[in-house]
Amino acid sequence: MPAAAFLADLARAASAAAEAETEFRRSVGARIAALEQERAVAFRRLNLMRGLSEAVGQADDEAAALGAGRAMLAGRLGWQAMSEAREEVLGRFTAVVRAVLALDRGEPDREEPADPAGALAAFEAWYAASRGTPFWRLFDTAMPETPLVDF
């Protein structure tokens, strides 16, 4: 029966089209998720470095700037109590603070120009290598639900 063969061909074409659509939707979903993550990290970087620049800019000297930079990061991460691991992170972040300070103060006598982007990238690479996870995951904190109480 020729009609049966024709219909079978159409059924195979319909199945192939459905599979192609499903695969496309899967790949688009993965791409959207990747772009979403890139966007989140880019804004976290911007907001962190903006806050760092403001903290460093208000300091009177280098020691105050380093302290302000460390305090700003600890505050953003909600770190009230310190541990050895947290102290290590803040210690490594000092290079980023120094780079922002040098850029902010425009230190002409430096051998190399201030490079906050490079310092931040080196810090991120160190964190990922030593902790096995990206630094920016520290900002993925779920806010606990608080019950709504109406008096």
Short description:
The protein is mostly helical and 151 residues long. The protein is 72% helix and 0% strand. The chain contains 4 helices and no strands.
Helical percentage:
over 70%
Mean pLDDT: 90
| Main β sheet profile | none
Instruction: Determine the N-to-C terminus distance.
Output: 77 Å
Number of helices: 4
Q: What structural class do the secondary elements suggest?
A: mainly alpha
Give the total of domains: 1
Low-confidence stretches: none
Shape: elongated
Give the ordered list of helices and strands: HHHH
How would you portray this structure in words?
With 151 residues, this protein is mainly α. The protein has one domain (2-136). It is built from four helices and no strands. It has helices at residues 2-57, 62-76, 84-105, 116-131. Helix 3 packs antiparallel against helix 4 (116-131). The longest helix is centred in the N-terminal third of the chain and has 56 residues, at 2-57.
Question: How is this fold's topology laid out?
Answer:
Elements: H1 2-57, H2 62-76, H3 84-105, H4 116-131
Helix pairs in contact: 1-2, 1-3, 2-3, 3-4
Features:
4 helices; mainly alpha; 151 residues; single chain
